[in-house]
Specification:
It comes from Paracoccus aestuariivivens. InterPro entries: Mechanosensitive_channel_CS, MS_channel, MSC/AndL, MscL_channel. This is Large-conductance mechanosensitive channel. By secondary structure, this protein is mainly alpha-helical. It has two domains: about 50 residues; about 100 residues, no CATH class. Helices cover about 75% and strands about 5% of the residues. The protein has five helices and two strands; from the N terminus they run ααβαβαα. It has a two-stranded antiparallel ribbon. α2 crosses α4.
Length: about 150
């Protein structure tokens, strides 16, 4: 069982997956900072400083007028926290857009590297074909027999 586990871990795709998860976790911190520290303040300026995350409706219970969402929940009221949901949707869209732009940039770099490699291969002198090599071998064999 231990040997089977070692074989499983040693497979390339498992190691690649582990690296991907680690890089993804590190990238998550970067994207979250991008959203929270750079993009959300700009959106706040455009919406007049409105923070949707505190908006809610009281479904059951009593809450003092103007109480925060946390205070309403602490008071035991049943709340419909539509603002938190809207904030989550907005954050998701911003994160998805940032990831899209990153993937697009990485694909562009990869494509340019592939095109450069193809251009280098095309510019390199072509070696003999398989048929030409076989003909040379044939001719050498004929020359050694004669």
């Amino acid at each position: 069982m231990l040997n089977e586990f070692k074989e499983f871990i040693a497979r390339g795709n498992v190691v690649d997956l582990a690296v991907g998860i680690i890089i993804g976790a590190a990238f998550t911190a970067i994207v979250n900072s991008l959203v929270a520290d750079l993009i959300n303040p700009i959106i706040g300026l455009l919406t007049g400083g409105t923070d949707f995350s505190g908006h809610y409706l009281v479904l059951k219970g009593t809450v003092p007028e103007g109480a925060s969402l946390a205070a309403a929940r602490d008071a035991g009221a049943s709340v419909f926290a539509y603002g938190s949901f809207l904030s989550a949707i907005i954050n998701f869209l911003i994160i998805a857009w940032a990831v899209f732009l990153l993937v697009k940039a990485v694909n562009k770099v990869q494509n340019s590297a592939v095109l450069k490699k193809k251009a280098e291969e095309a510019a390199a002198p072509a070696g003999p074909t398989q048929e030409e090599l076989l003909m040379e071998i044939r001719d050498e064999l004929r020359a050694t027999r004669a």
